[in-house]
Write a structure and sequence with these properties.
The chain is of the alpha/beta class and 257 residues long. Helices cover 37% and strands 18% of the residues. It starts with a strand and ends in a 17-residue tail after the last strand.
Length: 257
């Protein structure tokens, strides 16, 4: 039986993995939230790895507040880079395969075509820079790893675009949504299945990979889809807004394949 550590277990991906974990009977999971395992605390990380025999570590721990990362980048780098480095080193010392979730924000969004794993990253905000440095640390310390870049992640858990649109629509608010950016909304439940299938099937296609649900749309189009799926289209005023109110620069093209 494989033993798998899941960090960031209270995040949306962590909760999606926890939800389907019982279906993977040949995998023994240990879920740790940020209080139970602070990945920025190297002593805590090392102690956990040394007292357990893990085969894999799925790192769902991340600082994902893009706006706040721009204002206080040190916090983002502490979690997304230094914390990831701690995990990578612990995985190396204990022969553990690291599966790490990254983002389309490692790219600048200036290309007029989808980004592939062969494209050179060039992040334009602090969040993207911190995530890219985390990737670099993994590549420096490990041979057996899988970095999965995804985009526009949403689920029924936590705060995300899908839940925000749904909540505001049900409250009768007018929705001003930009159509200036394109990407591929990705259900975290589908990403969870992708990750656990990789483990169960004993795959060894390590390295950097891209995973999305594949459908390209703007934020405005995504909002339209959310309203339609929940039969809210007729009662909500959805306004196309070209001025995306944001402090952090964001990639105009976030499509990854």
């Amino acid at each position: 039986m494989k033993s798998v550590l899941v960090t960031g277990a209270n995040g949306q991906l962590g909760q999606c993995i926890r939800k389907i974990a019982p279906k993977y009977s040949h995998i023994e999971f240990l879920f740790k939230n940020s209080k139970e395992l602070d990945i920025t605390n190297i002593a805590m990380v090392n102690a956990l790895f040394e007292s357990n025999k893990f085969d894999y570590c799925i790192n769902c721990a991340a600082y994902t507040n893009v706006e706040q990362a721009e204002k206080t980048p040190a916090i983002a780098f502490q979690v997304n880079a230094d914390g990831v480095k701690n995990l990578a080193m612990a995985c190396k010392n204990n022969q553990v395969v690291l599966i790490h979730v990254s983002t389309d924000y490692v790219f600048d969004g200036e290309k007029n075509r989808p980004y592939t794993v062969e494209d050179t990253p060039n992040p334009i905000n602090e969040y993207g820079k911190s995530k890219l440095l985390g990737e670099e640390y993994i590549k420096q310390h490990l041979d057996s790893f899988k970095i999965i870049r995804t985009s526009w992640l949403y689920s029924e858990f936590g705060e995300n675009f899908y839940q925000t649109v749904l909540r505001r629509a049900k409250a009768g608010e007018h929705l001003h949504i930009t159509d200036e950016q394109i990407g591929c909304p990705t259900n975290a439940n589908n990403l969870a299945v992708h990750v656990l299938d990789f483990l169960e099937q004993n795959l060894t296609n390590y390295g950097i990979h891209h995973f999305t649900d594949g459908e390209v749309m703007t934020w405005y189009e995504f909002a339209e889809k959310i309203l339609s799926e929940n039969n809210l289209g007729k009662g909500v005023k959805l306004v196309k807004d070209k001025n995306y109110r944001t402090f952090a620069k964001r990639p105009v093209n976030g499509v990854i394949i």
